[in-house]
Prior knowledge:
Number of helices: 5
Number of strands: 0
Oligomer: single chain
Shape: elongated
Amino acid sequence: MEKAVPITKANPMAGYKVTTQARKKMIRKTTEQNKKIPPMATFIRYGLPFVLFVAGASFVVASALDGKNKERDLATGQSMSKSERQAKMETERDNMVKKMEHMAKVEFDNTKRIERPEDILERRRLERENRNVWYKRLGRWMKIV
């Protein structure tokens, strides 16, 4: 059988062959050391970070939802009182009525015929012919007209 080699505190497994008895002894030592830790130290080591994380997450989520609700209220206009909303709606209505009255002053003839493409082409052809009549072309060359 192999002989157990003394284990140092600094690095118990560094380059040594450890027997099963020595290994069990090391495990016992570590479990005894863990048992010696007071419960308050365990709470500070494990519980306190968890509690801080939960409280922080709660705060972040609450502030995010609060901001979202404020934005929604502003978008829908629920942040104002009813009288303010009513006054705003009345001013918008008055502005629309003024615009409509202004537009009603300009007469709109709904019976006017829309020109068809062939009519447009015919009109342009006639304009071109009138512009290119021989006596008007003559004037362009002579610079009289």
